[in-house]
Structures are given as structure tokens and as C-alpha cells.
Queue: 2 jobs
Job 1
Amino acid sequence: MGRYRVRVATGNSAFSGSNNQVQLWLVGLRAEVELGLRLRPARGQMEDFEVDVSEDLGPLQFVKLRKIHLLIKDAWFCNHITVWVFEQSMEEKEIVFPCYRWVEGDGIICLPETTAWMIRNESQGLFQKHQEEELKARRTLYGWVSWKKGIPLSVAAASEKDLPLDARFHEEKKVDFERTRVVGVTEIALKRLYTLLSSWNSLEDFDQIFWGGKSALAKRVRLSWKDDDFFGYQFLNGVNPTLLRKSSSLPTRLVIPPGTEDLKAQLERKLQEGCLFEVDFSLLAGIQANVIQGERQHLAAPLLMLKMEPDGKLLPMVIQLQLPGSDSPVPPLFLPSDPSLTWLLAKAWVKNSDFQLHELQAHLLKTHLMAEVFAVATMRCLPGMHPIFKLLIPHLRYTLEINTRARTKLISNGGFFDQAVNTGGGGHLDVLRRATTCLTYRSLCPPDDLADRGLLGVPSAFYAHDAVRLWDIISRYVQGIVQLHYLEDEVVRSDPELQAWCREITEIGLCKAQERGFPVSFQSRDELCHFVTMCIFTCTAQHSAVNQGQLDWYTWVPNAPCTMRQPPPTTKDVTLEMVMATMPNVHQACIQMTISWHLGRFQPDMVPLGHHKEQYFSGPGPQAVLNRFQEDLYTLEREIVARNESLDLPYEYLKPSRIENSITI
Ligand SMILES: CC/C=C\C[C@@H](/C=C/C=C\C/C=C\C/C=C\C/C=C\CCC(=O)O)OO
Ligand SMILES: [Fe+2]
């Protein structure tokens, strides 16, 4: 018995309130009581009321709530219920029941109090029963589907409309996304009209469409894209810093033609000096090129060799556009000393190839699709009261919807890849399949990946430096939360939901990825922390590193052509006509500009890394861990700002204030 003050907190997004009435129960260890209220929750409001309860409820464990509609169902977004307990001769006690979900229909929803997982063994099985019922319902809502064979599984949803309401964009996000889509459609139409009667036979003609959404750096790209140091810089700190690696030997595919022995000597000297680097696009070899409006497109599988200069500049030394083969046992090598248009076209082929592997491997597969596997497995295996659910859920916001939209608009039949990209038309799916077969756990963990690629400690590798710093900061945050909940390794080993989550990711979502280093169980807190750190890093920092740069590096189309309309050159005699016949046409270039702007622009409702408002945990312990996380991020922010001040090209993509807390675009 005692007096209770109850606070009902409603979400702040549009339509979060409800005209339906809400009924509440307090459920204690010894009894439960219906509060007899009929509340109409209002958007953004916290509504308090007090009740005297005659029964002895015992320690509160749940709040149950139900929305009652007379005529019209009106969904309600409940943030949380907070209860203050006034008991005789005891100071007031605050108990929080997190929700952060839509309440639809008229079913009863059970909200465990925030520390339930820690006391689950003393609750006469009440929490266990709740967890089982919750996961049963979630497994019905969140199903797996194989969208295309040979790539990670996705959420079962033909379009975003099929997703559960809790996975959908909130109104503000949806309106913004649709508005910019309309802007994009309009922009493409206007550019087509504007260029209908104009020429398209010089590189400067791309200026005719170089308006609309673009950044200051995009304007710099337009001026500097032909420069070799600007070209090389992008493999270190551009939109795709994932392919560059330090050479440990001359690649076997690099067949040196007779008469170019001095090139071989230069390469070997740079190798000996430890400053030879390479980017190998062999993954593209043999991929079927797209046919766009009846016009066959073309693909290459380049190898690029670069040298790291003492001043930190990375300069291209040689480009081989195709693998040696029976029809071309000694493919031509293109050099900086070649005629300028020849060398420019060879570099354009490298950047077109980089566009393919960036968008499909680094961006879609290694961030979006990985995050989707984490999201579906989390919803299917971890109950809301589980500490790893609480840790991860803020980093999974909106991901299922943006990925579903990508599958229906970008990489679908007739989508933008089919309309304007030379791996479109089905080749893009083969690239995804090949990339999936070489997707290792190590490649998703920067300390391992950058060590394997020889990029640790390289002064001008700003992505590498910032990625390792962020990994360490996120790792400390994860360890802080894990150590509050798993007091020893045995607790990890004996947590059935956690072990099921691990298996569901590796064996189901990633289609038996244990052969590529992914775990099928966690044997220690360290193993758990490493994996969860990888999840959060992938969903936040890594996506920021490979998504934001689309606006900067892809809107000046010649810097990263989305398609190539003629075969790669086999001689050094390249004319401007050949270059312009190869580069994307007006329509393809307009699509590239618009999509790059749409996907790379700053999201208006973005939540910066570590600054989500939802409070899934309560108490001083978790709050101190989150505070430390935010402090560490702020320290890194200041470090990066200070470093960037001395740079001609500041590296901004891993500035914590620019990293979104989840993959939403
Ligand atoms: C290869 C894709 C890489 C990563 C996925 C990407 C997510 C994209 C998700 C949705 C984008 C879908 C469509 C774009 C929407 C509008 C574009 C604007 C205008 C297009 C004109 C038109 O609609 O005809 O990560 O960011
Ligand atoms: Fe993205």
C-alpha cells in the first residue's frame, strides 16, 4: 500500500499523441493494480498524476498499458512511464519503465523496469515469461528474407510500408526524404531541359549541370580533379578509404612490358623503401556490364600503384586497366608521363571502378547490409530489457527503412543502378556476391583492418587515424556498459539470448560467416565487447566515413564517373572525343549528381553519435559510462578540429559531431 506518482511521457515527433484513451496497471512482485485512469496522451507532453493504492504491491516490476479506441485507432508513441513510490518512512523512490515504441491496437503492453535484467532471477520467473512472449511477438514482426542469393539476409519487407511501425521513419524524416526526392526529380528534369540543345563534347560541359546541391569541397574537386596528388589523396581520405593497402611485393598481375624496366626499378625501389601502395580492383574482373537505353556500357578491373612521398602525398605511379589474360597477356600500362588525356582517361577508369566497389562493397554491403543483419537479429533475439538491446537499439534507428528503400529504388530492377551505373543490370548483384565471399570480421574492425592494410601510423592517413581513435572510444563505452551487467565471463557464456543473438547474426543473417572469422558464440566479456564495438562502429563511424563524402567527391561527375560508355583504352592515342564518348552522358551525369546529393547531404533530424535522448538504462552507473563516452567524443572533436586547421584538405567525416548515431541515409 502507498502513494504513487505516475508520469506518462509521450514522444515529440508529429502524430506521437493519441485521441484514444490509455489504461495503466502497476505490477509488483506481490500484486498488481489497475489505476482506473483514462488518459489521452498529448504529443511531447509529460503528464503526471498521483494515486493511493491500498494493496501491498511489493517492489514494482512492470507497468502494463493498453490503448482503448472507441471508433478510430490512433497510434501513440510512448517514450516512458516513470513512477515515484512514497512508502512509509522511506524516501521517495524513482522507477523508470522505458518504452520508446508505438502503441497500436488495443493489446496490453508490458514494460519492465530498467533494472529488470539484473534482478531477473529473483522475480519468480515473471520477467522470463515476459521475455519469451516479447520475443515470440518480435519474431513474427521481424522476419528474414534472402533478397538475392549470396548476399546477407534482409528484413522481410517488399517495401517500407511492410515494415513494423517501430522500424519506420518518423514523420519529420519521411517528409524530408520525400521532399528532397521531389527536388531531385525536378532538378534532373530542369538539367535535361537546360542541356537539350547544348553541346556535350568537352569536360567543361559538365559545368552546365554543376548546380543544385553541392558542397564547398565539391567545388574544389571540380578545380583539382585532374591533379595526381588530388587523385591519390582520395584513396587515403576520400569517400572510399577502404581499398588502399601497402604493398608487400609487386603484384603478380603487374606484368612489366619490355622496354619499361626503369618503371620496374622505380617500383622495386619504392617497395624497398616501404612507401609503395596499391589499389586492386580485381573483384570487377569478368563482371557483366550494364546496357543502358540500348547502349552497352563497359567495365575494367584496374590495378593502381602509388608511392607515398615524404610530405605525405600519395602519387600514382602506374595504372593497369585489365588483368593479363589470353587475349592480352601483357596489358598496356598507363603512366603519368603519357599524353595528358591518355593519363586522365586511365585515372577516370580507376575512379569509375572505385565508384562501383565503394557504393556496393564499402557502403552498401559493409555498412548498410551489416547494420540490417544486426537490427533484425537484435529484434528477433534480444528482449527489450536486455543490456545489449539497450546498448544497440539507438544505433539501429531507421536502418531497416533506408535499406528497404535502397532495395526498391536504387539497386532494384529499373532502379538507379540500372539507369546510370555500368555494374547495373545485374552485374551489381554479382559484385555484391563476390564482396560477400571476402567479407571478413577483421575487415570490419579498424585496428585489424588497418594493420592488415599497412595503414597504421601513416601520417597523412587521417581516416585511419580517426577510425582507430573512434574505435577505442566506442570500445571503452561498450566495456563500461558490459562490465556493469556481466560481472564475469561465465555470465556471458550462460546468457542464452546473447548467444542466440550471436549465432543468428553469423549463421543466419551472414549465411554461415564463421568461415570468415565471425563468432558463433561469445566465451568472454572481451569477445562480446569486441563484437558489439564492431556493430556500433559500423552503424556510426564507418557509415559516416563512406556516406558523407558522396556529396563532396561524386557531384563533380568526371572525378568519379558512375558509368563508362566506351571500352577501356588499349593504346596511348586518346582524344577528347574518346574521353567524352566514354564519360557518362548528360542524363546519367544528372542522376549521379542528384543521387550523390540526396545520399550525401546532412540529415536534418540527425542524432550525433552518443547523443540519443532515449534513456533505456537508469541509475548512476550507466549514466557515468555515457557521460564518459560523450566527453571522449568531445575531446576527439577538438583534436580533429585542431588538426584540420593545418590541412589544405580538412578530413571531416569522422568528426564526432558529424557522425550520425545510426544509418538513416
Ligand atoms: C548502392 C547503394 C549504397 C548504399 C545505400 C544508400 C541508401 C539509399 C537509400 C535510398 C535511396 C533511394 C532512392 C533515392 C531517392 C531519391 C533520389 C532523388 C531523386 C531521384 C529521382 C527519381 O526519384 O527519379 O546509402 O546512402
Ligand atoms: Fe548510406
Job 2
Amino acid sequence: MFVLIAAAGLGLLTLLVIVFAPNIRKYAAGGVCKSAARLDGKTVLITGANTGIGKETALDLAVRGARVIMACRDVEKGEEAAASIRASYSQAQVEVRELDLADTCSIRAFAQQFLREVNHLHILINNAGVMMCPYTKTIDGFEMHIGVNHLGHFLLTSLLIGLLKRSAPARIVVVSSLAHNFGWIRFHDLHSQGSYNSGLAYCQSKLANVLFARELARRLKGTSVTVNSVHPGTVNSDLTRHSTLMTIFFTVFSMFLKTPREGAQTTIYCAVAEELHSISGKHFSDCTPAFVAPQGRSEETARRLWDVSCELLAIEWD
Ligand SMILES: NC(=O)C1=CN([C@@H]2O[C@H](COP(=O)(O)OP(=O)(O)OC[C@H]3O[C@@H](n4cnc5c(N)ncnc54)[C@H](OP(=O)(O)O)[C@@H]3O)[C@@H](O)[C@H]2O)C=CC1
Ligand SMILES: CC1=C(/C=C/C(C)=C/C=C/C(C)=C/C=O)C(C)(C)CCC1
């Protein structure tokens, strides 16, 4: 009897999903960037642009006329992505440069060459990220999530901030996540040496993204360089590659998830929307202002994280 009821319930649910498929898709797609802003003559740098949200962001901004520099750790993958962008839009000005955010030497070498060869930077998009990888350390000994998602981007931004200021008005977009809500900055064990949970390590790094954007915005007041963080939505991308369970879940429920193109909308919105020209230090989702968890609003935590980041990277940045 129970099996019959369960089967009938499942059948009904499947039928409802099929009938309401277009509505479900429309809801899942979320907000769209409606700005028609052009970026002719502007230079954009996007990290992790060879796939997922980063690649779609690169395509959109290239279509708007920008010169888009795709910073990728695997140049071959980057060139393939650039070729597919050129195939979609023949006039796309896209270039690939090597950047491994898990290696401060690579970040420094990238920035050095960038500053030598590129005269302006109007939009920096800190998009690259790793999620739920097994316990690994970056070349410099940082836990991979905090190392790549936060510290790598922190160093990169510090090295390019002068150029951004000279190119102002300029914008920085930090791709964070709703996952920041479940994160805490564990100052006593930032690199999870005591205990490691890959999900919590990801959440910590995404909280660090929110805190970095807020603290940087505070420090950039009056410079015409703005910085905002975004949650792109739940996006069917390669991000789940380290978790079989998540990959299966994302495949089964793909209809309820955003495509990378849909997931890129809030990043694009923060990068181009005219009405955001002076908005800084805010968090966005679905192209609208979004809730920030209390731990993401703590000025004290933000300042402390800033100092700790400078110390770990052996840099001075005030
Ligand atoms: N997908 C989702 O549901 C959500 C995503 N986000 C955030 O969106 C951002 C983009 O993710 P998404 O497009 O989904 O994921 P993908 O896995 O598709 O893309 C991640 C990108 O980051 C790059 N990357 C990873 N490690 C490094 C490194 N050490 N140096 C340089 N680049 C690196 C990857 O390069 P490679 O291909 O070579 O590995 C890839 O280009 C991330 O910051 C993620 O945290 C936030 C919330 C939800
Ligand atoms: C619960 C639930 C879902 C799962 C959401 C998940 C698993 C979100 C993961 C978010 C990530 C990976 C954020 C990264 O920063 C679906 C499939 C949307 C639809 C049905 C209800």
C-alpha cells in the first residue's frame, strides 16, 4: 500500500515538474542585467575565465566592446575558451594570460607583466574559485580555499589597485556566495590545520570575499574605484568537480539551477550598470542588493582579516 502511494506521489510530482517546467526554468534563471552599457575602449580583467560564470562574463563584456583579459591557470583551456568566445562573437577582443592564484609567484609575475603591457584597467572581476576540494595547500602553504578564493585575489588586487585608481572610474567585482552565511573566519586556525571540513573551508573563504569587498570599499572612499561582492545563484558549472555527491545532485536537479550564462548576470550587472557608478561595499544577488550575514558586516572582523592577510602575504597595504 505504502509503495503504491509513494509511486503515485512521485508520478504526480514528475507530472507537475513537466507541466510547470517553463515556470520553474524562468524562476530558476533569476535576475537579468538589463543595462545596455557599452564598454568600448575599456579594459576588463577576469580571473578563472576559461569556464563557467567567468567565461560567460567574458563573452558578455566582450560583446559590449571591452578588451577582455582572461586570467587562467591553464592557458590551453583559456585559449579554447577564448576561441569559443570568438566563434560566438567574431569581433571579441579577448586575450589569455597565465595566472595561478594558488601560487604567489605566479600572481606577482602576472601582475608585473600586466602592469608593463596594459595601460588601463577599468573593471577587475575576482571570479576564480575552488569548492570542497580535499585538504590541499597552495604553493605558499595556505589552505586551498582561503588561499585561492581569498588570499590569491587579495594579493592580485593589491598589485593592481594603483592601475585601477589611475584608470578611474573603475570597478571591482568580487564573486562570493550565499555560502558566506555559513562561514566563520577561524583566526585561530585559518588554514584548518586543527580540523578540516571542505564545506566549511569554502564557506569561510566566501565570507572572506564579502569582508574583503566591504573593507576595501571603506578604504577606497573618494577614489572613484568601487567594489561590490555578488552571489551568482546556484549555477550548474564545474565548481562541484571535487564532490561526487554535489555533482550528482546538480545533474539531477539541473532544471532548478542557473546556467552559467544566467549565473553571470549579477557579476555583469555590478560591472556595468549605470545606476551603480557610485555604489560600493554592497552585496548583490539576482541583480539586486542582497542580505549580508552579521559576520559579514563586522567591521572589526573585516579589519582583522585585512591585517592577517597582509601579514600572511608579507605585504603592506593601507
Ligand atoms: N556555481 C555555483 O553554484 C556558485 C559559484 N560561486 C562562485 O562563482 C565563482 C565561479 O565559479 P563557477 O564558474 O561556478 O565554477 P567553475 O569551477 O566553473 O570555474 C571556476 C574557475 O576558477 C578557476 N580556478 C580555480 N582555481 C584556480 C587557481 N588556483 N588559479 C586560477 N584560477 C583558478 C578555474 O580554472 P580551471 O578550470 O583551470 O580549474 C575556473 O576557471 C567562484 O568564485 C564560486 O565560488 C558562488 C556561488 C555559487
Ligand atoms: C536544496 C535545493 C537545491 C540545492 C541547492 C544547493 C545544493 C546549493 C548549493 C550552492 C552552492 C554550491 C553554492 C556555492 O557557493 C536545489 C537543487 C537548488 C533545488 C531544490 C532544493
